Amino acid sequence: MSWEVDLKMFVRKKPNKSGVVSIQIIDKSSGKYRVVKTVGSSGNPVVIEALYKEARQLIPALTGQQVFNFDVQQEKRLIDLFYNSITEIRLAGPELLLGKLFDEIGFNKIKEDLFRHLVIA
Question: 30 vs 56, which has greater pLDDT?
Fold first, then answer.
């Protein structure tokens, strides 16, 4: 037998003596195992895997769970778009806080922007 837990419902692959595997959705919310639905049965491993996937997809509807579809490729495209659209980064906070101190010390007499940025950083 193969078990996979999904909250209180899970999919069970239950083989019989003749080699046929039954795919069942099981509920254990009351403490006892209860067959909610038998999705199908087969002796063919490809069909068994297809039935198993079908059963896994039925559980959210049976339990009332919301399913979040995360499109990884779409997320990567959005991240790339965001990253590629950045043209400049300016740190205003350190400049506001430490810029005045930089000037009071007299470092502003050195007219090199890179020096100012390095000291403040």
Answer: 56
